[in-house]
Amino acid sequence: MLRNESQLLNLSNVNENQDYIINDLKIKVNESFTELNELAMKNSPSFAVRFNEVYPFFFHKLKEIQPDLTSHDLYFCAYLKLNYSSKEIANYTHVTLQAVQKKKNRLRKSLRISSDEDIYQWISNI
At what angle do helices 58-65 and 46-54 cross, to 10 degrees? Predict the structure, then answer.
């Protein structure tokens, strides 16, 4: 009986430790997203670097799909991945709303995304 109680106590300790680790990871992820959003809103040059740390394969996958994408295209796709609206992207990048719409259309063509497919959904699946 003591052996079973000891095993249960050990399992309880393992579960508590796992819960602590999971909560710690959740906090770190939230902090990363908060930092990423702040960098995006400031249109900081560090945004692309931090984005690549949070989404390490995103730019690579886009380049596999379309090798001719420029760094500006990738940067713009990062804003789409974060689900920013056209108005937000225009505001953060200091361009007009029309410029953002044109960029989306050029990306659609370059990435061969059909007009009836949601570009945000397509990007989020990468």
Answer: 90
